[in-house]
Design brief:
eight-stranded mixed beta sheet, globular, 289 residues, signal, DUF915_hydro-like, Rossmann fold, alpha/beta, Alpha/beta hydrolase, 9 helices, AB_hydrolase_fold
């Protein structure tokens, strides 16, 4: 009888220890979104370059911090800086190694306050150059106007034969519906299903050209909200940053969105936000296209 009681006691102890261990694992997983990304093994990295395209009035510092953090975490390596002049001529600093190191290319516009139509032409010039360097595919990461101009390139040109295939697109705080805020007219859930209730000329252009976007291209939309009672990141309305979700999804593209809340979700701080870093790194380099 004593042996039987001892056995029952031991089983209960083991069950209690196992339960505690399970809960610890769940809590660790849940909080992992606030932690830095772990270095990727060399054999799990790729040779597909990622283009970092700044927003309106952006400079080399705009994505400088994120690029530096990715290098320090051994997630990727900066290899090129391409500065585009207004006449589409390129200044190339650095050299592509063709190594499997998740190469990063920073794209700068010398006229950094120009419109999205010219910027889309400049993006095309960069892509054509990379094609001459035997680059067959690229990712694009755009902040603010950088995301707007990248989508305009896609809706205008689609997949030209003289440029690499765009295999992933990330847009951070991009005003796809200009600066129209429809939050008083619809919920975010309604926006994601139906699109914006009020459409800018920019959005209508996207509607007219969305069929040009290859349906195999996955997209990630990241947006900011300063806090409770706000509906923007201090510059771009949340409903504008997420406005193309429905349009892109109905075109057949895989698409995800994520909203960051708080002071670090301010428009110019989004690309300095480590939680944004983590989602960008996972989407670009840890998930298969």
């Amino acid at each position: 009888m004593k042996k039987y009681i001892v056995s029952i006691t031991l089983l209960l102890c083991l069950f209690f220890v196992s339960s505690c261990h399970s809960n610890t694992e769940k809590n660790t997983t849940k909080s992992s979104t606030n932690q830095s990304s772990s270095p990727l093994e060399t054999d799990s990295k790729g040779s597909t370059p990622t283009l970092f395209i700044h927003g309106y009035s952006g400079t080399i510092n705009s994505f400088g911090g994120m690029i530096d953090r990715f290098e320090k975490q051994q997630l990727a390596r900066k290899e090129l800086v391409i500065t585009v002049q207004p006449d589409s001529t390129l200044q190339i600093d650095g050299k592509l190694s063709n190594a499997r190191n998740n190469p990063m290319i920073q794209v700068l516009f010398a006229d950094n306050k120009n419109n999205e139509w010219n910027q889309s032409e400049w993006i095309y010039a960069v892509l054509r150059y990379l094609k001459t360097q035997n680059v067959e595919q690229v990712n694009i990461l755009g902040h603010s106007m950088g995301g707007v101009s990248s989508l305009r390139f896609l809706t205008t040109y689609g997949e030209p034969e003289d440029s690499p295939k765009i295999v992933k697109l990330v847009a951070i705080g991009s005003p796809f519906n200009d600066f129209i805020d429809t939050s008083n007219q619809q919920t975010i859930d309604e926006l994601l299903v139906n699109g914006p209730t009020q459409k800018s000329d920019r959005y209508i252009d996207y509607e007219n050209g969305i069929a040009n976007v290859p349906t195999s291209l996955p997209m990630l939309l990241l947006a900011g909200e300063l806090g409770a009672g706000t509906s923007d990141d201090g510059t771009v309305p949340l409903t504008s940053a997420l406005s193309v979700y429905s349009l892109v999804e109905k075109n057949g593209n895989p698409i995800r969105q994520s909203v960051f809340v708080g002071p670090n979700a301010q428009h110019s701080q989004l690309h300095e936000n480590k939680a944004v870093d983590q989602q960008v790194a996972q989407f670009l380099w840890e998930e298969k296209p």
